[in-house]
Amino acid sequence: MRVLSALQMLGLVLVPSVFGEEPVAGYEVVATSPIQIGEEISFRSKILSDEVSMLIHLPSGFEVSSPDHTYPVIFINGGHGYQFFSTVAGVAKHLGDRERIPESIVVSLNDLGDVPEIHTHGMWGRDKIGGGGDPEAAVRHLKEEVFPFLEKHYRANDYRILVGVSGSSLFPIYTFTHAPGLFDSHVLVAAADMVGMGYSEDSTFIDSFEKVMTGPAKHRAKLYVGVADADLEKRPDYVVNLEQLKARLGKLERLDLMVEVVEDADHYTVLIDSMLTALAQNFPPKLWSSRYRDLVAQPGDALANIDRYYRELSAKHGFRILPRADRWNNVNCLSFMTRHLIQEGRPQEALAVAERRIEYQPRAAGSYAGLADALEALGRHGDAVKAQRKAVDLAREAEDHWQLPHQEERLKKLLATAE
Questions:
Q1: What does the pLDDT read at residue 7?
Q2: For a 10 Å CB count at each end of the chain, is N or C smaller?
């Protein structure tokens, strides 16, 4: 297992010798350390009879969250996936941290991309491409090896998005047309040419998409196609592809189709704009930007109101979604609601929220600090001290040099109050 730093993901290398030179006056480098955004895992695939590798990025709260938390997976395919892993991981991390989307795992499928023989229909200089490898085995590899591995070791759930960029879109197109339901959503970026290609001389992928979505499988699907305006210049055939895609697939009942032309973008910079739109297609902002203060202000018990909202959200998306235990610099989480309910004169409800936070993050010092606050508000000073001692112990065990002095100071104040 090889841990990759952010610099490695971006293809940058720091030359150690620069730090041995004479420092700038008044400024001296005293330490350096890599910034981790993921890890690379290589393993032997029995199905593919080969060694394959994946890059994996985990959500911010993964290490401290309970087994109750499971995560959707955003896969990005092939060599383009390896190249743009840091981009997709950064977008997913930022939106997940802000609860604009669910916290998600990001995986680059570095070694998948085999497709059947494909007729380009004049989209490229060659008449045919592909035809190598075994795409059916690649699908089995995903079903029988990759998905179970991620579920067992990283608490992945079965909501899956597959992203393809440019030529790496061909395998996602294959999974859409040959393995319906394997992924909930397919995201094709810089692929205005690809959708006009096909499996035979007299058909295009648009034909194949339509056949699948009107066929007997009866599954629902999401398909996003994002294109830079620069890619459409001097290519009227690409424009025709997009127009046909919208005309023929845009009104199909079981397909949620989005086609976007991004202005002032080029073939690869379009990726970020495309990811923002595609993720909004999967996780509509109005649903994901929940306001916890509004939820607890409704009639009834505060935690029951929060739970009801997330049960409804889970039902809409088909996987279990839990309230956020904690969020950096944001009021929409259980940690803030504990303090808010205390301030509102609802300490018993605050205690229930604090106890739920411990269920979700049992190894986080802040969870027990919140419990101590609620217990103190209820006049249970002895129990509050015990909870705060636990917070100190957890901060010390985690070697959290920011949390530890804060939790120790809070314990001193509680002890003084208890006396």
A1: 44
A2: C
**DSSP letter (8 states) at residue 23:** P
Strands 221-228 and 117-119: unpaired
Residues 303 and 272 in one domain: no
373 neighbors 336 (Cβ within 8 angstroms): no
pLDDT digits (tens, 9 = 90+) for 241-299: 999 999 999 999 999 999 999 999 999 999 999 999 999 999 999 888 889 999 999 99
Torsion of CA 291, 294, 299, 300, to 10 degrees: 40
Q: State the pLDDT at residue 6.
A: 46
Please give the order of strands across the beta sheet that includes 156-165.
2-5, 36-45, 50-57, 105-109, 71-77, 156-165, 185-189, 221-228, 255-262
Are 198 and 323 within one domain?
Answer: no
- For strand 50-57 and strand 105-109, is the pairing parallel, antiparallel, or unpaired? antiparallel
236 and 375 assigned to the same domain: no
Structure tokens at 89: 């991981």
Number of folded domains that form the chain: 2
Check which CATH number belongs to the domain holding 393 and give it: 1.25.40.10
pLDDT digit string, tens, across residues 55-74: 999 999 899 899 999 999 99
CA–CA distance, 352 with 342 (Å, rounded to integer):
11
Q: Which CATH number do you get for residue 267?
A: 3.40.50.1820
**∠ CA(390), CA(394), CA(396), 5° rounding?**
115
Distance CA 300, CA 241 (A): 53
> Which residue positions in the chain have pLDDT lower than 70?
1-23, 418-419
Domain extent, residue 369, equals: 290-418
Question: What pTM value is reported for the model?
Answer: 0.91
How many other CB atoms are there within 10 angstroms of residue 176's CB atom?
Answer: 24
